[in-house]
Amino acid sequence: MHSFVLIVHIILAVLMIALILVQHGKGADAGASFGGGGAATVFGASGSGNFLTRLTAILTALFFVTSLTLAVFAKKQTTDAYSLKTVQTTAPVQTTSPETSPNAPKSSQ
């Protein structure tokens, strides 16, 4: 699931970059007076502004959702890595006093 969301996230990022680069800026309207009004014939009389703006908003919202999803996955992975559930318990070590230890030197009295 993590890989799928990551792949969708990368595809959305590339699509957003391409879509934003295709859009014209606010100063590009001056170029239309010199014969650069080709976008109006493809996207209708209103031009490409409304269509591209809405598509950019949708891709941005999806990018935001995938970003939050990846953040949740990263938080869960980090929490699991540093939780006490991953600590393996071993048998308790018995401590013996030197007098009762079998290897302790015998004292002669």
From TrEMBL:
Transmembrane stretches, start-end: 51-74
Main location: membrane
Keywords: Cell membrane, Membrane, Protein transport, Translocation, Transmembrane, Transmembrane helix, Transport
Renumbered residue ranges of the record's region Disordered: 88-109
Signal sequence extent: none
Record localization: Cell membrane
Keyword NAD carried by entry: no
InterPro entries: SecG
GO-annotated cellular components: plasma membrane
Topology versus the membrane: Multi-pass membrane protein
GO molecular function terms listed in the Swiss-Prot or TrEMBL record: protein-transporting ATPase activity
One BP annotation, GO: protein transport by the Sec complex
Free-text function comment from the UniProt entry: Involved in protein export. Participates in an early event of protein translocation.
Membership in a protein family: Belongs to the SecG family.
Protein name: Protein-export membrane protein SecG
Organism in which the protein naturally occurs: Acinetobacter lactucae
